[in-house]
From TrEMBL:
It comes from Nocardioides jejuensis. Gene3D superfamilies: Dihydrofolate Reductase, subunit A (3.40.430.10). GO terms for biological process: riboflavin biosynthetic process. GO terms for molecular function: 5-amino-6-(5-phosphoribosylamino)uracil reductase activity. This is Dihydrofolate reductase. InterPro entries: DHFR-like_dom_sf (IPR024072), RibDG_C (IPR002734), Riboflavin_Biosynth_HTPR (IPR050765). Pfam families: RibD_C. Residues 9-151 form the Bacterial bifunctional deaminase-reductase C-terminal domain.
Length: 180
């Protein structure tokens, strides 16, 4: 079991445009059965952790999933805001990621903890030595500005690289990892 930051990115390292648009990402061609694809990844995930903007994006897009919260796994949202919880599986926390990680790891029952994003939250896990791997699918576009993939100096080891149709997929170990 590992703690993994798994995400799509523009070539120039942005997760979303400044106004949180992801159309540049979700419209690309990807093979659902191909390397490092979401479907295969998420089957091994036992718990999720995300920041407030990522959660807000998911809330805003609930109509696209028929109003249903899209994850069966327990999910922690790091925030100072008051949010609705569309599912009993969502809980809220703030401050240090250490306690959140401990709880998520326990809830994951031997499966991976997925750090969904954003980039600073992934950086908080890396800073605490709790991030094991980063998996990125790079879309063939540069955005020029937006929400950054990882706004920290972070030493990585390239473990794997593959093409999945429109995407360059890369898997890295975080040099200071050890989240288990
Ligand atoms: N390309 C992809 O595959 C992908 C993946 C993930 C996300 N995204 C998108 O990328 C964007 C990311 O937005 P973002 O950069 O703003 O990151 P974010 O992590 O989603 O949200 C950041 C906010 O989370 C809260 N937060 C973070 N750490 C916290 C902590 N330790 N304690 C309490 N609150 C904490 C803070 O908000 P408050 O203090 O206001 O609560 C902070 O401003 C979103 O649009 C998202 O939809 C894209």
């Amino acid at each position: 079991m590992a703690t993994i930051y798994y995400t799509g990115s523009s070539l120039d390292g942005f997760l979303a445009t400044p106004d949180h648009d992801l159309s540049w990402l979700v419209t690309r061609d990807i093979d659902p059965a191909g390397p490092m694809h979401y479907e295969g990844f998420v089957q091994g995930v036992g718990a999720l952790v995300m920041g407030a903007s990522t959660y807000q994006w998911l809330l805003d897009h609930l109509p696209e999933t028929g109003g249903e919260w899209p994850y069966r796994q327990p999910t922690w949202v790091l925030t100072h805001r008051d949010f609705p919880a569309p599912s009993g599986a969502v809980c809220f926390a703030q401050g240090s990621v250490v306690e959140v990680h401990r709880a998520a790891r326990e809830a994951a029952g031997g499966q991976h903890v997925w750090v969904v994003g954003g980039g600073d939250l992934a950086g908080q896990f890396a800073d605490a030595g709790l991030l094991d791997e980063i998996w990125v699918q790079f879309a063939p576009v540069a955005l020029g500005e937006g929400h950054p993939l990882l706004p920290r100096r972070t030493e990585l080891e390239l473990l794997e690289v593959a093409r999945n149709r429109d995407f360059v997929c890369a898997r890295y170990a975080v040099a200071t990892g050890g989240g288990g």
